[in-house]
């Protein structure tokens, strides 16, 4: 993979034609092909994805019940979100997923990466850890929920270790925590794989030097591994932020097994948006759903900008 | 991706570090957990409902293949599997048909628009489904494409174009320029160069993009939930949710549920065993360097 990626940056540089060649008839003929090749994709993407996304911003400034005329209400939808306790808890849960689940996922991924670095059978272990990533979240939620049922597998294991009265994991108090641990379980494999690919690029002799100098595992991590894979950590942080805000199916199927929306206590902003638009019983509130969606995207944008700022530094050559 | 190969001496010495002593068992415990969950799912899919609860770890007394039969017919997984196949195939082929030419144009034909449009597509990667769904629902409703498999395919194609274009733009960039120049010198038109020289060369990338697209949409839920309404058109993940809902009224058919889960997971597992490395590398590509 690395070879391919290195090759990409090299040939891409080579592929940029010199200014003189741009005027050549060949380049001119090729340029005539640019729009015919691009336009079909652009059209579908624009009409069914980019356009509707932009329209959501406008929608968030209007009051609309899905049919009939829209009426412009300015920022009133956002004020409604601001004063809605359900949105508060949903927003809080989204932050918990981004920072709590994210922190734990990164911690576990780093730990796994360090152990897997020179472990026998690392390829097989990586493949098995990665697998939950390509399984439908609905399936993962069903399996995870079944494990934590009263008298289910988790309880029977705990009973074997002497804890005979475990709490009701799927009750109100613990439900969101169980969901968060489930999210750590499903996402760890992906980030471990990326971090492993980065660690593989670090020359092994650096670690040998460390061992000669008597460094322990943590020191090796702190002074060799982390600095040399800093950029990849930044990429992972961005990827996590994006996918954390998108988390929807896992919560929906985990807590709302009866085919209806789960209890509002476990909603995140994605569920809130869906609930306001499609499942709020009475009149759909498209305006505040749109406002909540805009908040989601703004959160992603803000955090990605922040991550890029924090992670920025000179690349280490090695 | 070279393996780090510490010599036998370092490996022996490394065995004494606390990372090894503590870490390796923890990693295998984690791995074993995943394997056990998978095995338990498969075992439960051929057990009777009472066995699933009373003896979760034991082999089934007799194989209840009727679980699969019930899931296939009563749970409507059979129809859902057919729908999913149609949607997934249509989406993957449609996405490639649109994405590959666009990626070629963006990576190999230099105009002043390239970086702008590449960025425009890439931005779509960060947009959650909830941001698109409301206006998109209105658009689809106007076009009478709600609750139709074709409509769902259109939505899937539009939403997978950002990743596919991003992925293939990178891939076309790795191909050597010389071949394009040689084709042009031999008198091939620019379109023929694209169609008969560059596309076959990019086959590896196209196939990876196809596989990733199929896997991603096999269990997709959010858009299916919004745009499919009748059971006749439901996809596998909707059938699974519907089965859960049915159990509320018809009593718990856990054996049937696990058979349904297995029907969703097994094709993906087969695909993964066959093409695992390609899938892993395709999904994590571009993150490292």
TrEMBL record, chain A:
Subcellular location: Cell membrane
Alphabetized PROSITE patterns for the sequence: ABC_TM1
Domain ABC transmembrane type-1, first and last residues per copy: 91-307
Main localisation: membrane
Segments crossing the lipid bilayer: 33-61, 95-116, 128-148, 175-199, 228-255, 286-307
Record keywords, A-Z: Cell membrane, Membrane, Transmembrane, Transmembrane helix, Transport
InterPro entries, A to Z: ABC_transporter_permease (IPR051393), MetI-like (IPR000515), MetI-like_sf (IPR035906)
Membrane topology of the entry: Multi-pass membrane protein
Disordered: annotated segments: 1-23
Signal peptide, first to last residue: none
Protein family per UniProt: Belongs to the binding-protein-dependent transport system permease family.
Protein's UniProt name: Carbohydrate ABC transporter permease
The species this protein was found in: Streptacidiphilus cavernicola
TrEMBL record, chain B:
TM stretches of this protein: 20-43, 80-104, 116-137, 149-173, 193-215, 222-244, 256-275
Main location: membrane
Database matches in CDD domains: TM_PBP2 (cd06261)
Record-linked Gene3D superfamilies: MetI-like (1.10.3720.10)
Keywords: Cell membrane, Membrane, Transmembrane, Transmembrane helix, Transport
Location of the ABC transmembrane type-1 domain: 81-275
Record keyword Cell membrane present: yes
Subcellular location: Cell membrane
Membrane topology field: Multi-pass membrane protein
Domain of life: Bacteria
InterPro entries in alphabetical order: BP-dep_ABC_trans_perm (IPR050901), MetI-like (IPR000515), MetI-like_sf (IPR035906)
Family, similarity comment: Belongs to the binding-protein-dependent transport system permease family.
Name this polypeptide is given: Carbohydrate ABC transporter permease
Provenance organism: Streptacidiphilus cavernicola
Organism placement in taxonomy: Bacteria, Bacillati, Actinomycetota, Actinomycetes, Kitasatosporales
